[in-house]
Design goal:
about 70 residues, mainly alpha, 5 helices, about 80% helix, elongated
Length: about 70
């Protein structure tokens, strides 16, 4: 039932993966399982997730003191 609701929501699911990769809420592990459940193409998940994680760790590396307060 849930899969049929999200069938046409490819951009929304990609945005969800990106936000989860950057912010960490919900945990990226849970997002990976949900992406598989909703059949997000692997290449899209990989590229969006990798980009999000890169942004997250770049921000942590560039602004460590500010990121400690946020995360």
């Amino acid at each position: 039932k849930w899969r049929s609701r999200f069938t046409g929501a490819e951009p929304g699911l990609s945005f969800f993966v990106f936000v989860s990769a950057v912010v960490g809420i919900p945990p990226f592990f849970v997002t990976a399982i949900l992406a598989g459940t909703f059949r997000v193409p692997f290449l899209r998940f990989f590229v969006v997730g990798l980009t999000g994680r890169f942004v997250r760790f770049a921000l942590i590396g560039l602004f460590p003191k500010a990121m400690m307060e946020i995360f």
